[in-house]
Every structure is written in C-alpha cells, then in structure tokens.
Design goal:
The protein is α+β, with helices and mostly antiparallel strands and about 425 residues long. It has 2 domains: about 15-170 and about 225-320, BirA Bifunctional Protein, domain 2; about 330-415, Anticodon-binding domain (Rossmann fold). Helices cover about 35% and strands about 20% of the residues. It has 15 helices and 16 strands. It has an 8-stranded mixed sheet. The protein has a 5-stranded mixed sheet with strand order 13-12-14-15-16, sandwiched between helices. Strands 2-4-3 form a 3-stranded antiparallel sheet. About 35% of the residues are buried. The structure holds adenosine-5'-triphosphate (ATP) and magnesium ion. The site of adenosine-5'-triphosphate has 18 residues, from strand 6, strand 10, strand 11 and helix 11.
Length: about 425
Amino acid sequence: MRINKIKGTIDFFGYEVEKYRYIEKVCVDIAKKFGYSEVITPIFEATDVFVRSVGESSDIVNKEMYTFTDRGNRSLTLRPEGTAPMMRMFVENKLYVNPGLAKYYYFGPIFRYERPQKGRYHQFTQFGVETYGLENPLLDADVINLACKIMNALGIENVKVCLNTLGSKEARNAYVPALKEYFAPHLEEMCADCKVRFEKNPLRMLDCKADANTEIMNNVPKISDYLTEEDKAYFEELKNALDILGIKYEVSDKLVRGLDYYSNDVFELIYDNPDSAINGLTLCAGGRYNDMGRDFDGPDVKAVGFAFGVERMMMALDELGIKVPDSSKDKVTVITLGKPVKKVGLKLVDYLRSNGIPAEIDYQSDNLKPQFKLAERIKARYIIIIGEDEVASNMMTIKDTWKQVEVKIKVNELNEYFEIEGANKYAY
Ligand code: ATP
Ligand code: MG
C-alpha cells in the first residue's frame, strides 16, 4: 500500500514554498526593524513545560498535544505553541539578569492534534514575538503595531484588530464568580466542553465556538464592569496609543483567548471580508501575560507577545490574489552546440554561480529544443549560447529574454555584462 502524508500536514513545493519563505522574510525583516532578535528553541520539550504554563483547562493541554514517552521514559511533547518554550528558555538561561526590555521572535513548526479543516492543521507554522521585562501600554500598542505592519507589508488589508482586556487578577477574581453564578442555571443548555470549562476555567466559556451567538452568551456579564481603576487606565492608555499610531480596532468583550496565561489586554487580527470564504479567520493572536516566569521557577516576568499562523497568512494572500515576488535572482541557462562544448558550458555555469549568479545547464542534450525547454522551465532571464565557433573565436552570444535583446560579446567582457566585480576575467 502506498504511504501518504499524515492528514492535517502539508507538503510545500513550487510556488507554495516561495510564498511561505516570503512571509517569513517579511515577518523577520519587520521584527528586526522593531529591534527583535531571533530565538530558536527545540521542537520538543518536557511535557510539563506546557502543562504548567498553558494550563490543564486549555484545549491545547487537554486534547491537542502530541505527547509521547521516549526511550528514557520521559514524557515529551512536540511544541503545541511557542510562548511557553520561550519563557522556559528565558528563565533557564537567566536572561532576565540583562538590563532592559528583551524582545525576541521565533519562526517554526507547531503541532496540535485537532480536527483538520481549512486553516487548521496538525502541523503548522507560527511566527511569534515575545517581549520580557516591561508592563507598559505603549509597548503593548507597539506589539500590536508590529503585527499590523506585517499585514500591511504583505498587502493583507482586510484585517480587523479585535481587542479586549481581562484586567488584573483582582478584577478576574471578582468577575469569575459572577460568571459562574450567571452560567449555573443555563449549564444544561450548553455544550459538553462548556460544562467542563465551568468547573476548570469559566472565563474560557466566553471563547466557546459551539455556544457563540446564543441568547445565553449574548447576555453574559461583562468584564468591563469588574475592572479596577488601574486596569481601566491601562486599557485607556493602550487604546490611546493605538489611536496615535493610526491603528483602528474594535473592542470585543467576548475575546478571552484559549490559553490560561493571559492577563490584561488580549487581541486578535481577524480576516474581515463578508464575501470571502475565510471571513472571520484569526490570523494572529496575542496579549499580555505576567505570571508565566514563575511557572518555570523564575522571577515574575512581565510579558506581551503574539503569534501568527503562517499557513493562514498564505490563505489570505491567495484569497486576495496577491502574488509574492520571485525570490530568485535573474537566472542564466547556458546552451551548448556540439558535444565537446558541453564541458565548456559546465565550466561557465560554475563560474557564474561562484560569482553569485544562479545558472543551470542541460547536462544531456545537444539539441537546441530541450535546452530551450529548460530555459523556459526555470524561467531563465539570460540564455548564453556557445558553440565550437564561439569557443574558437573567444566569443559568446547572450540573449536577455526580458529586454528581448541579443548581443555577441567577447568572453573577457562577461564580468562587465553581469556586473561581476573582481579582477579575474573568465576565459574558455
Ligand atoms: P483557535 O481559537 O482558532 O483554535 P487558538 O486560540 O488555538 O485559535 P493560538 O493558540 O492563539 O490559536 O495560535 C495563534 C495562531 O496560530 C492562530 O491565530 C492561528 O493563526 C494559528 N493556528 C492556531 N491553531 C492552528 C492550526 N491548528 N492550524 C493552523 N494554524 C493554527
Ligand atoms: Mg485552537
């Protein structure tokens, strides 16, 4: 029987890879401009990394982790999110002793066991940022700004920024009992997951996809009525900073996010176009969390960050008909006439590549047709043609297929033609 890829995973090839790497490049370039530096953590971690921080009442820990026991009888988990490993890394390496705000980004695969569907996979990719060491609404606004700048740079403009605050612990300690009191008489009418959440983490009932838009959900008490004066001031400052940065947002009091670790502001960037098949798809999600350092026996680390789903951004680009630029430099194909010249051609492509120019040759054919086919297939801009006559007279013919011009040059003029720097001249 044929072996196929696991459902919910993706093979990327051809243009899909161009798109994937282009998104990575845009994310990284912008993050670097904002002063973030890259961190690469392992793809698997001790299971406890996620259990302690993401929390047992979250969908991730509850039912979405790829957990296995290794040969040393340790429980390991393929990372189902990036925030907990980053905090583990930060605390373990005692990076908190460095002064100032730490700003990191990561890009890599994430694994979740959930029902595969459009925009939901078993293995997907997140680009995320985390900042450690400061609780300030201006920072939170600038983190949201970074996410928006990435969207803008990619040309994804149909995006809505949804914002909420979960307030401080104090506010949530007052709000959660009110929420429980409200939901208790309605529990029978709610989904099975909500019954569990009611016991473990009632806040997450607001995030329920099954019970969304029901009468019960529409009349639920609002966190905004339970915020402390300080919480309110923080949220106002954040909104004000977003206004100054020219970022439009919607405050949504049902936005709580699926993870246990958030406090204060949470946000999502949602694809917003009612005519589109992906309307309402969350492309990016994040917020502030201040207690996670302690989950790793570290200090209290003030933190804010977000994660983008890269495959979902690819979907958004497709939806908008945005084509990413071809990452490759102008390519060259060398076409040879006559068997003895093939090796000369091989030496020529080697010279071009050594000087940073992508070049290919058809190793096999002496006929013109298959050689031109190769040029077409790899979308070569330049076609260099050499035959025995050219070699004998130290000449070559170069066709620029974009400009539609053909020139005959001396071999020692090759450097000038391709703007190759250096004193070495090419010779047959
Ligand atoms: P949802 O409520 O849609 O399940 P989530 O709260 O689980 O989302 P996060 O954990 O915040 O999502 O992940 C951040 C981003 O990663 C999401 O906004 C989304 O773009 C992407 N993402 C999450 N789960 C998947 C998945 N299974 N497949 C593809 N992308 C995903
Ligand atoms: Mg999820």
